[in-house]
TrEMBL record:
InterPro entries listed in its UniProt record: NSL2, Znf_KANL2-like
The protein, known as: KANL2-like probable zinc-finger domain-containing protein
GO CC terms in record: NSL complex; nucleus
Entry keyword set: Nucleus
Length: 217
């Protein structure tokens, strides 16, 4: 750009070349910044996973590690034998549900299994899969699932729902082995749902007619 810095006018080709070169330089800067952020994210995730996830250190003496109502502490010896850095105490908050010894998630007092007990949390909802139907109403799975999950099912019941969907599609004449590889057309799903509803209505009608005939006899 030095020879063109004093130019009053530029040709179209010169402008396009300069813009292309600057765009490539900017993209290089963005890529470098992106990967730097990715490395920082890995370090943060590793630290979070170590603190709240799968740390191999366990409390040997609960009486020594207990600190008030805030949770437990664990002590770790530092390699090297330096007396000034012999022990490091890291506070670990436990889940407040009675009988649960799991570590609480960050910024909350509950573990992942009991996170729905926190009335202030907005990230999780219960799995909406119906395990059993009773006279008082359906019994749902209610395992914690992210609100953004569609459909709102845990991993176990997501697989069950996919199996049911595959069976329904086979009945409609569409043979697939995985719902992830092929998205079924909407009209096929509607046809299958209508067929199932009509089957239930016919069965209910037959049961009603049979009951009326028995009463008449």
């Amino acid at each position: 750009d030095a020879p063109l810095s004093t130019a009053e006018f530029l040709t179209r080709q010169e402008v396009l070349k300069r813009r292309s070169r600057r765009a490539k330089q900017l993209a290089t800067c963005y890529k470098a910044h992106y990967w730097a952020l990715m490395e920082e994210l890995k370090d943060k995730h590793k630290e979070y996973y170590w603190m709240y996830g799968k740390s191999p250190y366990k409390e040997e003496d609960e009486e020594e590690n207990e600190v008030g109502n805030d949770g437990n502490c664990r002590k770790r010896e530092v390699a090297g034998g330096n007396e000034e850095e012999v022990l490091k105490t890291i506070e670990i908050r436990r889940c407040e549900v009675t009988g649960c010894k799991a570590k609480a998630m960050a910024l909350t007092k509950y573990c992942h299994a009991h996170i729905l007990s926190d009335s202030k949390q907005k990230l999780y909802r219960g799995c909406s899969y119906c395990i059993k139907s009773t006279q008082t109403g359906p019994i749902l799975c209610c395992k914690p699932v992210l609100r953004s999950t569609v459909p709102l099912l845990c991993s176990t019941h997501m697989q069950v729902a996919e199996k049911h969907l595959i069976r329904g599609l086979k009945r409609a004449g569409l043979n697939i082995y995985s719902t992830k590889k092929l998205a079924p057309k909407f009209h096929i799903l509607v046809t299958e749902f209508v067929r199932q509803i009509q089957t239930k209505r016919r069965a209910a009608l037959k049961a009603t007619v049979a009951k009326v005939q028995i009463d008449e006899e």
